User: Fold these one by one.
Assistant:
Number 1:
Amino acid sequence: MIARVILIVLCIVYLLNLTGGIIEIPDNLPIVGNLDEAGVTALMIKLISDLRNLKKKKSDSPEHR
């Protein structure tokens, strides 16, 4: 669970694009330049969804009732 939260934070930092697109795939390349951001966004959405499902499963378990 902690690893997912750390990965979500790293995704947010990556999407803030603090380097201006210089280090990773340059953003000024047509289409290809935005694929990395699309991939990181998809990963972040998947991680958030997994985290919510994990939290829901824990709250639905008989131990927490």
Number 2:
Amino acid sequence: MLRPAGLMSLAVLCLVSNFATAADWATVTDDGRAIKIETDKLEAVIPKNNPKHWMTGIEKGSFLDKQTGFREVGDGLMVVDWLMEAGSDAEWSEQVIAPDGNGVGRYSWFENFTEPERQEYAKMSHGSSNRKRMVEGPQLCHRMKAVEPEVIRGDDFVAVKTTYKFEYAAPGRKPGSQWTQLIVFPKGARYFVLMDKVDCVNDSEEMFLRNDTPGCVRHVNGDTFSEMYLSYLSGPKGLVIPSKEFFEPFPPDLKFGYRRDTHKLPSSFIRAYHLRDPKTGAAGPWLAGLTLDPEVVYEAWASMRPGGIIVMIEEVYGKPIRAGQSFSAAHIVGYVDDIPSMHKLYDEHKGNTKLVVDAKGWKLQ
């Protein structure tokens, strides 16, 4: 006869099993904390609560390329941050209080900084020019509450849809805009397709959503990557940057930055880094993030913060919008063998900003 503890363990095991579905090429498992997707080419985890690092996007360290054995080396992929607009919130940031009692963008460790330390942190994190302000919060990656994503299965894909409504707003605005992140894992692909969409409840002359595309890079003197590629800088062939350029911290407005109002519209918007084994130095695949419509990118940077982290911020949309309207951006994120392969994939899907899916299939629009 099982003791009560044994009965409880059996019940938990059954719960996990009941959420697991299998096919010859993909398995989806929901253990209550997160959803694990395993396809014939990839593994990835999408958190529901108690994340290892951030709540949005693909969980830190979980994105595995089965072909090479390499994983993402940052804090997760396609992590979503704020709903923002141009300007500064310095005059009223202390007035905006989140439901959990935290202020706008405030962390417990940040409260212990002196004012000069805060200013230096802000400079290194966001630069000294072109300041931004929050329209609605919270900062989703850091403070989003538990979610219940929807899993959609098809014969040759698995999709996960997550939604969340912003809970508080800046003075003169109201909360309630809805963020939707839709992720599709196609059969036979070393990448996923993703859309971030915002249904707005506020007007703005320049609203945008901030994210990490594809994600940040953690390293010590380039031990985890050998070079970075930005297709939208330095002419039609793009810019290949050796890892040594990221050995010392620098702010986002010093170098490797892009703004739609100051740069020529590029033919592609690809951000990628070339992985390598930190123990042996052996070259791995490229991990690339493709934003499929270059015109949707408002601003982007790749800057080195203190602490060994390259921040790959991308801000999408940045145009006038009215309450009741929506905007979206579509991306492909995954492993490729070389730069020509990135462009081939990009050209096959270029120009799309939307992703739709049901049990019958998925498509970019």
Number 3:
Amino acid sequence: MKIAFSDYDGTLMRSAAFDDTRGVTESDLAAIRAWQAAGNKFCIATGRNYGLLKMDLDKYRIPIDYMIGTNGAALFTGAGEVIAQHTLDRETMRQLFATEAMRRYRNGMLIITPLDNYGYRPRTDVPSRFLHPLASLDEAQKVPGVVQISTEYADAAETAAAFAEINQALPGKFAGNMNRSFLDLNVAGCSKADGIAELISQIDDEVDEVLTIGDDRNDLPMIERYHGFTVSTSKDFVQAAAAKVYDSVGDMLRDHM
């Protein structure tokens, strides 16, 4: 059996998240169905949790067998059953919010569990209708089962600088998974690559080949570990790390059928 892991936003979903004009192409969907009909597994590996991905799974009828969610901090079956999760404890969250980097932070913040999403101040990428509102960071610390804290900055350089400052204040506490101007803070050691390895260790079927495809910095661990691929719209640094560049996820699947 072969198993393929595709990033979602920017890879399978090629346009901006939560834009009503976006879509997953029928060509890609047909390739996924053919891939599965041949006895293989298709999975999404994303920074989203299952709650935020499910609306698209239903809307576009995307057939998935498993999901690597929140950059490897939560693993799911295709139906949304939680297989594993790596949570941030309240003391770690308290220490984070007390850092100078977070005291200066004024943009929106997402507090994410495997299935639910909480918002503290508005975000540009996730409309408020998808979020449970939080009035304070004290409330955020009381949310049970947090697997990811997501912040947003002006650009990729500011995002990297923010994580460097957080990591200096709390060395080794967090994985900083970065995607464009977004910083996802997970338990140290969480990445899409680690999530894939953990999932494969729990699958009963023998896995003969692992395929990965993504388009941004948080996809690099899985691209590099599994000699994976990227799409033609990705940045040069991602294309430099990839074994091959494809125009679409469907093209990758058809090439390895």
